[in-house]
Write a structure and sequence with these properties.
The protein is an alpha/beta fold. The protein has four domains: 6-38 and 126-259, no CATH class; 41-123, no CATH class; 274-294 and 340-396, no CATH class; 302-338 and 403-549, no CATH class. Strand 20 and strand 21 form a beta hairpin.
Length: 555
């Protein structure tokens, strides 16, 4: 394939989907940014004043930032400041724990005061082999990426996030794998040549669809399985479908050229009336009967509680019992899971994670209801115009509050579950077990209180966006670490605490290796202080995401 710049890739993608170009990529930037769950935030380096792009807004306002390329190879990260407005002189203040006497560290507060100015969050992070990047963070082995973050093994990506596994030609999209030629897609696996879709997987040539799977050539459709040649869920003969598709694409192009945007697949917010509910499923219909039947299986919390106690024992040296007693502590950086009643009277769990905050609660339904609603269509006589179709979609535009696929067992309050076991209050649990109060876990076990995205980790508390952690608490953007706490952007650490932007350390505090004996003494003091705070107030009073704003007493 001939290499092209990102704007040319955008134009090619538009031709593939709409049949023609609609304009330059930059003109659609605000529209393409709308589906970011976690926004790309721009700050300034505390060293040089250069732009630093961060793929999250979870850090405290005013936190010190640095660019990944400003981290000194093999040197302790220390307090950086810029004495003059032009940034011509740089001052570096290093507080070495190696030179710090145990007697000088009296308690947790004095330790934080001694290290407070060393906490700098890193942006512009690039890993592996990458090329042609612009305004990116957390990009690995990818090429031709612009205004995006958390992009892995992909190319030609713009205004997108959480793009993985050989995806290409992706614009304005979020959370997907194995896909190509997409515009404004949220949550997919193996989707190609598609526009304005949500939870549409293993499909091709989809246009303005939600919750469809194993489909091809469908437009303005909801809650379908293994269908093709559908418009508004209405089945059409192939020739008629393709003729209408050409007409509707032409109208879409006109709209987008004029407005630089297009209505959202989540744009149906009006509450369905009681009469419309009766029209959809009249009393005594099979669909209504299916919706009213079905009871939730019994839930056994025993295994989860045991896992929580074991995890806290491993980290704190003391078992904490009763996971709900620590809900405040575990939920500080996670998306809340809550229950709701659907328009049809069923109970369901939902979360604002990912796409949830964009959907009107008046149109959220259970998974069983969604599949029944997929049997409806917009009916005949709609005239074939874009405006008429959008108006008719009120009848079928319903969204499942969650989804369940694979082998799931003994989960409760888990809206999205894919082969999950013994999980509780997790927005999305994928190939995970014994996890609770989390936003998104993937291939995890005994992980609690963690935000986006925890992968391949075990026995952890309050860790965010990390891979392959074990027995850790309050970690952020780190991987391959064991028995660590309060570390950011670290790799290959073992028995370390309060380390930022460091690699391959052991028994380190503030990025300086202090030896096992000193480390264990200070660690015991830190854990005592943390447990005291937790027992008194229900939380630590700080976490890994606001250490960057720590101010020593008296300053």
């Amino acid at each position: 394939m001939v290499k092209m710049d990102i704007n040319s890739a955008w134009k090619q993608t538009c031709k593939v989907i709409f049949g023609e170009e609609i304009g330059d990529l930059v003109d659609f930037a605000p529209y393409l940014r709308e589906y970011h769950y976690s926004p790309l935030v721009k700050g300034k380096s505390a060293i040089s004043g250069k732009d630093v792009w961060i793929g999250t807004n979870r850090y405290c306002k005013g936190a010190r930032l640095i660019s990944q390329d400003e981290i000194g190879a093999g040197k302790p990260t220390a307090a950086y400041n810029n004495p003059d407005a032009q940034g011509k002189a740089l001052a570096v203040s290093v507080k070495s724990m190696a030179a710090l006497s145990i007697n000088d560290v009296k308690d947790l507060d004095s330790l934080l005061d001694s290290l407070g100015e060393t906490f700098c969050y890193s942006g512009n992070k690039v890993f592996g082999t990458c090329s042609s990047l612009e305004n990116v963070d957390n990009c690995s082995d990818s090429h031709f990426v612009s205004n995006s973050h958390t992009v892995v093994s992909s190319k030609y990506v713009a205004y997108s996030a959480f793009i993985r596994q050989n995806s290409e030609f992706i614009f304005g999209s979020c959370t997907l794998i194995n896909s190509s030629h997409l515009i404004r897609v949220l949550g997919t696996d193996s989707l190609v040549r598609s526009f304005e879709c949500s939870w549409t997987t293993k499909s091709s040539d989809m246009f303005f669809t939600s919750h469809c799977r194993d489909c091809t050539e469908c437009m303005f459709s909801f809650n379908l399985r293994s269908k093709k040649y559908r418009i508004g869920n209405l089945e059409l003969e192939r020739g008629k479908y393709l003729g209408l598709k050409k007409k509707l694409c032409a109208e879409t192009v006109q709209h987008m050229k004029k407005h630089k945007s297009f209505p959202s697949v989540f744009g149906f917010s009006s509450k369905p009336s009681l009469n419309s509910m009766k029209d959809i499923f009249p009393a005594g219909s099979a669909g209504k009967a299916v919706m009213k039947t079905g009871t939730a299986p019994a839930w056994d919390k025993t295994g989860l509680e045991t896992a929580f106690s074991e995890t806290t024992k491993l980290i704190f040296g003391k078992e904490l019992k009763g996971i709900d007693n620590y809900s405040k502590f575990l939920s500080e950086r996670t998306d809340r899971v809550y229950g709701l009643t659907t328009p049809f009277g069923s109970k369901a769990f939902h979360s604002h994670y990912f796409r949830g905050g964009r959907v009107s609660e008046t149109r959220l339904v259970s998974l069983e209801e969604a599949l029944e609603l997929g049997k409806l269509d917009i009916g005949p006589g709609w005239g074939g115009s874009l405006a008429q179709i959008l108006e008719r979609l009120e009848r079928i535009a319903f969204y499942p509050a969650g989804m369940s696929e694979g082998n799931n067992h003994n989960n409760y309050a888990v809206p999205v579950q894919y082969t999950a076991t013994d999980c509780y209050m997790v927005s999305d649990s994928t190939f995970s077990k014994k996890c609770a109060y989390c936003t998104h876990t993937q291939n995890c076990e005994s992980v609690f209180g963690s935000g986006v995205l925890m992968m391949e980790s075990s026995f952890c508390l309050r860790c965010h966006d990390c891979v392959r952690l074990n027995a850790c608490t309050d970690m952020d953007g780190s991987k391959n670490c064991h028995r660590c706490m309060f570390c950011h952007n670290c790799e290959g650490l073992s028995d370390c605490m309060f380390c930022f932007n460091a690699k391959n350390l052991r028994y380190a505090i503030g990025n300086v290796e202090v030896g096992r004996e000193k480390y264990e003494k200070i660690r015991a003091m830190v854990l005592a202080g943390l447990l005291k705070r937790l027992e008194k107030t229900g939380t630590f009073g700080f976490d890994i995401c606001n250490l960057g704003c720590h101010k020593p007493k008296g300053k």
